[in-house]
């Protein structure tokens, strides 16, 4: 049994008990204001491993999780009700997938440095057809590629790039950017970043959260929902000051306004209050390279977590690279927003 005390250094939980597909973690969070027993939290492997699983998006209309394998050049669909997992190949490294509003078979994707609209019927191996190219970014850095991307609360596309990775895990520094598609153009919002990640919005706080992973810090911007503009950058959670091993990757936000941050190289998802900078919880994941997370399920109370199995500092054996389902957290997320073309 381990204990995690708010404002204290993270402690590593004991090894999980594995029972079939269910990976049960026994841990307790001690909070000065409340005591929460986490013995009900379950982490379940729901897909087989990928090389670089990323970009989970829950589509409420289809009750399905969409995500990508960046290195596998593929887009994926998982339906929890049936356990069906299907995928198809695209024409290059794909950073994200978001459904197009009002359709069931069209998606905006980031492929290499292009933003494309593709049509895919969701069947395993079914051909994905490029319907339209919205634009290409970072012409001055042709070895960059698009990384994380999401639709904001008004359906605008926000997406960022990542510097060239000539050696696995080593990136060209300060060559990437964050963009917003305003139709018909991509507007550069932030430049001089290395690994663009971690997009989340809080309308109540008028905040946009964003991460340049190699800063080991989470950014906050003032956010104008009417225009999509961001301003007044500040930092809300410093990994190094909080003695967190690993780097911040993708993230999501719950209805309490707290962030859930995937930790690449840290085998966990962190629950952080960005208003106070406090670490609330650490959810262990049985994969070293945890890449992103989003809430889904009929009640939006299931956290879906993607991971990678890249052999950067050693072999990453299964279940590394799998997608996991985390239940029993006692919180809910916001609906994932589709892209309004």
Automatic annotation (TrEMBL):
<keyword id="KW-0106">Calcium</keyword>
<feature type="domain" description="SMP-30/Gluconolactonase/LRE-like region">
    <location>
        <begin position="52"/>
        <end position="309"/>
    </location>
</feature>
<keyword id="KW-0378">Hydrolase</keyword>
<dbReference type="InterPro" id="IPR005511">
    <property type="entry name" value="SMP-30"/>
</dbReference>
<dbReference type="Pfam" id="PF08450">
    <property type="entry name" value="SGL"/>
</dbReference>
<dbReference type="InterPro" id="IPR008367">
    <property type="entry name" value="Regucalcin"/>
</dbReference>
<protein>
    <recommendedName>
        <fullName>Regucalcin</fullName>
        <ecNumber>3.1.1.17</ecNumber>
    </recommendedName>
</protein>
<dbReference type="InterPro" id="IPR013658">
    <property type="entry name" value="SGL"/>
</dbReference>
<comment type="similarity">
    <text>Belongs to the SMP-30/CGR1 family.</text>
</comment>
<keyword id="KW-0963">Cytoplasm</keyword>
<keyword id="KW-0479">Metal-binding</keyword>
<dbReference type="InterPro" id="IPR011042">
    <property type="entry name" value="6-blade_b-propeller_TolB-like"/>
</dbReference>
